[in-house]
Every structure is written in structure tokens, then in C-alpha cells.
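so my prof wants the structure for this chain in the C-alpha cells format not the other one, which i didnt know existed until like an hour ago. anyway here's the sequence
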Amino acid sequence: MFFANRGIALVAVVILVVFAAIALLSISTFIGQRVLNQRAQENNLASLYLAEAGIHRALYDFRLHDLTANGYFTEGRTTIDANNSFTIGVNQVDALMTDTAGTYLGPSTGAAKSRYRYLYGARIQNTTKSKTVTIARMVVSWNNSYRLTRIRINGSNRWTGSAAAPANCDITDFALNTTPTSYPVDYLYFSGNMSGATVSIQYLMLDGSTKTVQMFPAVNQNNFTVKAT
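here's what i got, hopefully its the right format
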């Protein structure tokens, strides 16, 4: 009977040891996972702050250069210390600044003032000093039955034809180089009076990126996009 009791006690001790080992392993795993999660959260927060620093740096550079000429920022990596850095990088359409705040309708020289067929006043600019951005195509949309016949940018015709809305215009590629310059979209010419129409343009860039802006009636869309990681 004595040996039987000792056997039962030994089994109980073994069971307790196993349960204790399992409990300790669970607690250790929990603590280890908690530490890893905490570290991951700290890394994520640090990454967010670094990316925000990159965006603020780009905007600061743009505003600084805009005080004396056309604003711009530069892409690339900035090292903070041995373990931290941020990288500013954008696709072509992000860097394309489109200013439609001053657009207006008007006639050509000597034409009757009732023939508001020309849409003037838009401007475009490359906001980087590190990437050439190229407009490959323009899709022009408007809400009447007249036809688009010409697009002129920076003093030269980039597309001629006769297209109803939406006009998918494969323009002669227009490159905005890395010398920050504000280029005029001289005019869009239509076959009839565009008074009362709403006109928008989708810019398709050489890298495949796109964006759409309202060109008329004039709205303040003098904007671009900055990305940082």
C-alpha cells in the first residue's frame, strides 16, 4: 500500500511538472510575442514619422525654390542616421502640376467675340528637378456636340484633327524637363461656341500614370503629389 501511494504521488508530481512546463512555455511565448509586437509597432511608427519627414522636406524645398523661381523638389534618399532614412519618389503624373485657375474662353485674333471656340489659360509644370515627365496622350471631355480640332502647347501644335467628346488625342509627346519651367497650354480649339460647357482633361504620361483635372470653368487645381517611404 505504501508503494502504491508513492506511485500515485510520483504520477501527480510528473503531471504537475508537465502542467508547470506548459504554463511557463505559454507565458514565455506570450511575453516574447508581446515584445515582438511592441517592437513592430515602434518600427511602424518610426517609419510613418520618417515618411512624413520626407513629405515635409519635399514641400519645404518646393516652397523655398518657389520664392525666387518655379518651385521644385528633388527625389532620392536622405539618411538620418545609420538605421533611419527616407526616400522621396513619385511617378510622372504625381510630378505634373496642373494650373487651371486662370482658364478662359475667347476668340482668335480678329474673330467675332461671339465665337468663343478657344480655351486659353492652363499651365503645366514639372515639380521635380530629378525626373523628366512626358505627356503622351490627352483625353479631352466636354458636354456639347462640338468637336475638338487642335491642341497647342508651348507655341506648337501637338494634335490636330476632328474628334467628338471624349477626344482621345495621341499628341506629339511633350516632355517637361528637369529645369523647373511653367509651360502654357496655349489653347484647345473647338468647332463651335463653348460658352456654358464644362471641359476636363485626362493626362496620360509616358510611364502609364494618369490623372484628370477640370480645365473649364476655371478651378484652383494648381496641385501635385508627393510620395515618401
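also thought this was worth mentioning. The first strand starts at residue 76 and ends at 79.
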